[in-house]
Structure formats: structure tokens, C-alpha cells
UniProtKB/TrEMBL annotation:
It comes from Saccharopolyspora rosea. It holds the Pfam family NMO. The keyword Ion transport does not apply. The keyword Flavoprotein applies. SUPFAM superfamilies: Inosine monophosphate dehydrogenase (IMPDH). Belongs to the nitronate monooxygenase family. NMO class I subfamily. This is Propionate 3-nitronate monooxygenase. PANTHER family: NITRONATE MONOOXYGENASE-RELATED. Gene3D superfamilies: Aldolase class I.
């Protein structure tokens, strides 16, 4: 897959939805023989189309990542109980919490239509498995279709659906787990090389390793285990091209945050973040309910970010967050590649 796309640096820029991935970050990766993925999650189709146009104009290889609808509906009882638990935090910022669950599909059909009308080199998916017809249509349009998996079983399912390559996400990854079964999170302690080996035994598809890759030896180990490349997100979050908030970037080096935790507190899906008050207080009582909890907490998290209140912010981070540097993204990617 890398050769087909003209990629010479096997350290790619993973998609980070919600702002950290910018067109500038994707372009910076493409200019040095790597490749980045625009994060389509949470964006309007128009905003995604604009970002695609910006990157395409630079003539670099790139991909687009989408969230596949895989809803975990919230019961009214669970939703209202969680809403009541958050009211004191919301009142502090004069934020109104939605009174009923918001269950949407992130404008899935419109984004698929966009990628079929204006094909991009690579389309990757996470959270759920698209219909075979959608995968087939994207491939016919000229896109390479990639799916993110967290187990050998998921890899087999994706291969049977027609996916052409896999991102194999280890549990050390920051942000949301790509698991197809969010109510049953992946094994918490499996390292990336072991997971790559298990997936390699299950399928012959090209593999891209992700999760817990923060130093050059991590890259080497993943490639030796059978990956064709690696994808990094946390390592790029403090780079100059990252669109992450200043408070998020600063938290990576703050002595206040020395541990990460997987929590449903912020969105209702398991996601790894720096351990803070919100994760500790609300993680144990958060229902498995996505996207309802994402919409429930969204305005509160935005208000807290504006105020610099790290107690309430979703500080997505992988286990190797301390290795993230303030530098150009190109320097991060080449540094991680080492002598590969």
C-alpha cells in the first residue's frame, strides 16, 4: 500500500478528531514522504470538503477518516441520572445540558456521498464496520479502504467486508478506542507488537500499527512484528501544526497529570485520557451511551477548555504522552522513524 501511494517514511499521522488534526499537519506529513489522515469525525460535510480541497491542492498523499455509526443508545433513566450528576459542573459555567438524548450518525450518508463524488487516495473507518456496498463503491471510485481494528476477530470481519488494509490499534492509544464492541473494551494490557502478530496470523492484509508508539524502538518493534507502517497521534499533539488547545498541550508536561485512564465519562465510548477530576468522578457512573453522552458533555467541555479548567476537559492522551515534543510535525515523524 505504501509503495502504491508513494510513501517512503513508514510513520504516518493518525487522524485526531475534534481539532488536533489540521490540514497543515496532514500537508506537513505528506511533504516528507509520510501521509496524514484528515479527521472527518464531528465535522460538517462542507468543512470536510474544504479541508480536502486544501490538502489536495498541495499534491501530497492523504487520507480521510470517518466515524462509522455504531450507536449505543442511552436509556432515558441512565441518561437522566448522568445528567443530574453533571448539573453542578454545568451550573458553574452556566451551561445547559440537553434534556433528552441526542442520537445522531455524524452526517454519515452525506460524508460518504462526498467521498464518492470527490474521491481521495485513502478512506479509513473507525467505530463500526461499513456495509460491503459502501466499501465496494469507494474502492470502485479509486480509494484505498482501510479499517481500524482492535483484535484479530475484528480484523477478520473487516477483511471479509472488503477492506484493503488495517490499522491495528493497541489499547495504549490515546483518544477513543476503535473497538466494534464499546460495551466490551479490548484487553487492556496487550502491547502493539503482540497485537500485530495476532492480527497477522488472522489476515494477509497490509497492517498499520497504532497505539503506544512514542519512541523509535516502538516503531522498529511494530515493523518487525509484521506492520508495514505505524500511525501516531499523541506524539503529534504538541507539534506546531497541531490544532489542539494550548491547555491540552500544556497538560502533557504538567506534573499534575502523570497517568492516563480509559474512561466513558466524556462521550459514552471508552477513550484514553489524562486522569483528571472528571474521569475519576464520573467515569464509574457513566453509561455506555454514544453519541448521547458526547452531546451531553460537549458544551461543558468547551466551556471548561475556554476557561483553562483542566478538571473537566477531555485530555486525550496515549500512554507515551510524555514523549510528545514542541517541534514541527516533520521533525516528530522523522525522529520516530529513526534509521528505518
Amino acid at each position: 500500500m505504501l509503495t502504491e501511494l508513494g510513501i517512503t517514511l513508514p510513520v504516518l499521522a493518525a487522524p485526531m478528531a475534534g481539532g488536533p488534526t489540521t490540514p497543515e499537519l496532514v500537508i506537513a506529513a505528506g511533504r516528507i514522504g509520510s501521509m496524514g489522515f484528515l479527521a472527518g469525525g464531528y465535522k460538517t460535510p462542507r468543512a470536510l470538503a474544504d479541508q480536502i480541497a486544501t490538502v489536495r491542492a498541495e499534491g501530497v498523499p492523504f487520507g480521510v477518516n470517518l466515524f462509522v455509526p455504531n450507536p449505543m443508545p442511552a436509556s432515558s433513566e441512565d441518561y437522566l441520572a448522568y445528567r443530574r450528576a453533571l448539573e453542578a459542573e454545568a451550573d458553574r459555567y452556566d451551561v445547559h445540558l440537553p434534556e433528552v438524548p441526542i442520537e445522531d450518525d455524524d452526517r454519515w450518508a452525506a460524508k460518504i456521498d462526498l467521498l464518492l463524488a470527490d474521491p481521495v487516495p485513502v478512506v479509513s473507518f473507525t467505530f463500526g464496520l461499513p456495509d460491503r456496498e459502501i466499501i465496494s463503491a469507494l474502492r470502485s471510485a479509486g480509494s484505498i479502504v482501510v479499517h481500524t481494528v482492535t483484535s484479530a476477530h475484528e480484523a477478520k470481519c473487516a477483511a471479509e467486508a472488503g477492506t484493503q488494509a488495517l490499522v491495528v490499534q493497541a489499547p495504549a492509544a490515546g483518544g477513543h478506542s476503535a473497538t466494534l464492541t464499546p460495551d466490551q473494551p479490548p484487553r487492556p494490557d496487550i502491547p502493539a507488537p503482540q497485537l500485530i502478530g495476532e492480527v497477522r496470523d488472522a489476515t494477509a492484509l497490509p497492517l498499520i500499527a497504532a497505539g503506544g508508539i512514542s519512541e523509535p524502538p516502538d516503531v522498529t518493534a511494530a515493523l518487525r512484528a509484521g506492520a508495514e507502517a505505524v500511525a501516531v497521534g499523541t506524539a503529534l499533539l504538541r507539534t506546531r501544526e497541531s490544532g489542539a488547545s494550548t491547555v491540552h498541550k500544556d497538560a502533557f508536561v504538567s506534573p499534575e497529570f502523570d497517568t492516563t485512564v480509559v474512561t466513558r465519562a466524556f462521550t459514552g465510548r471508552p477513550a484514553r485520557a489524562l486522569r483528571n477530576h472528571f474521569a475519576d468522578r464520573y467515569g464509574p457512573i457513566a453509561p455506555c451511551a454514544y453519541p448521547a453522552l458526547h452531546h451531553l458533555t460537549s458544551a461543558l467541555r468547551k466551556a471548561a477548555t475556554t476557561a483553562g479548567d483542566t478538571r473537566l476537559i477531555h485530555l486525550w492522551a496515549g500512554t507515551g504522552h510524555r514523549h510528545a515534543e514542541v517541534e514541527p510535525a516533520a521533525d516528530t515523524l522523522t525522529r520516530l522513524a529513526g534509521h528505518v
